Task: inverse folding
């Protein structure tokens, strides 16, 4: 499985991604914008566990590697809700800082939202963004997400507090835009 998306390719994780993941992900610029599931420091063990989990995961793939110029450079994925949230999936992503500002994550997220609605029985994709993360908010807006709410002072990460912004994209909006 391989999704070409302009500046990048989305594909399943390989064992060979472990080494670059351990180097690229160990970066405060990334961790401070991600949930605590993405630690700092990001150790070799963290990389190992993530790669094993992705490779073992049941299909269809919920997490994909982002490859730029043939190199593993980041990740994008979703987590499906359960119970009354079973028609909702939470989306997350990151890319190495040396590639920021080139439109790569916008390409990746556009391709991934289409993949997600084509592949999973969900009606809503959701993303939560820390208040200081204007770049991520902009990526979502460019992909058709709507800013739906702001939870004030809901995030405390590495000693700093900020708001949590909720973005949503409905299947119906996505289909209407196609
Ligand atoms: C957020 C992130 C994925 C963006 O990736 P990217 O490939 O640089 O994104 P793009 O280049 O596609 O788009 C970024 C947009 O944000 C804009 N932007 C960047 N910094 C900005 C800022 N400080 N204020 C306002 N807009 C900003 C860019 O100008 C661009 O918009 P434009 O195309 O309208 O000019 C990347 O910065 C990252 O991995 N950050 C760390 C992890 C993270 O934040 N993950 C998301 C968690 S919700």
Result:
């Amino acid at each position: 499985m391989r999704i070409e998306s302009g500046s990048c390719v989305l594909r399943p994780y390989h064992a060979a991604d472990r080494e670059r993941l351990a180097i690229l992900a160990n970066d405060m610029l990334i961790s401070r914008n991600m949930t605590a599931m993405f630690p700092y420091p990001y150790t070799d063990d963290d990389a190992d566990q993530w790669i094993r989990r992705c490779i073992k995961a049941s299909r269809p793939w919920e997490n994909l590697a982002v490859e730029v110029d043939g190199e593993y450079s980041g990740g994008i994925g979703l987590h499906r809700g359960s119970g009354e949230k079973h028609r909702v999936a939470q989306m997350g992503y990151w890319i190495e800082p040396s590639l920021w500002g080139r439109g790569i994550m916008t390409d990746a997220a556009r391709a991934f939202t289409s993949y997600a609605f084509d592949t999973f029985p969900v009606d809503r994709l959701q993303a939560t963004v820390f208040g200081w993360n204007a770049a991520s908010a902009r990526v979502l807006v460019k992909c058709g997400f709507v800013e739906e709410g702001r939870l004030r002072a809901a995030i405390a990460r590495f000693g700093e507090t900020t708001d949590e912004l909720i973005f949503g994209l409905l299947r119906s909006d996505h289909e209407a835009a196609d």
